[in-house]
Design a protein that fits this description.
Mth169, Chain: A; alpha+beta; homodimer; ATP binding (chains A, B); 81 residues; ATP-binding (chains A, B); purine biosynthesis (chains A, B); ligase (chains A, B)
């Protein structure tokens, strides 16, 4: 089984990297680009035999405690297969 | 309209950050974690009036030329709405 964890800044948090990319893309000739926000994702492969419930429970805990900074970031967990 | 671009190392490329996270998670008591690979994504908002075809064409070019390093990274474009 695999899980994917998306981590990104909360919408209230400024994303200077995203803003820099946005202005660069407009300079490069893409005026239709209105906004860019950057995030990261983690593809986590789990050993065989883990139930989907146990997988989601563990990955949610891992996302909250290790992969994301709950003060400025939000996360979302997807179980892939 | 919004597009999301996923950028990650090619599967043949070593991901030391992912490996470090994987071993740390196992140390923290998650033995079922078999592998971790990290990537980044970009949420790109486009101005109104851009056709899906033009949006995909521009975002694919942007992904290839700006957001990803084609030598070691691969990318995938999703048009969200």
């Amino acid at each position: 089984m695999k899980a994917r964890v998306f981590v990104s800044f909360k919408s209230t948090v400024l994303d200077p990297q995203g803003q820099t990319i946005c202005s660069k893309l407009r300079d490069l000739g893409y005026p239709a680009i209105a906004d860019v926000r950057q995030g990261k994702f983690f593809d986590i492969a789990l050993a065989d035999g883990v139930t989907p419930e146990k997988a989601r429970q563990d990955i949610e805990t891992i996302a909250h405690e290790v992969l994301a900074n709950p003060v400025i970031e939000e996360y979302r967990v997807e179980l892939i297969d």
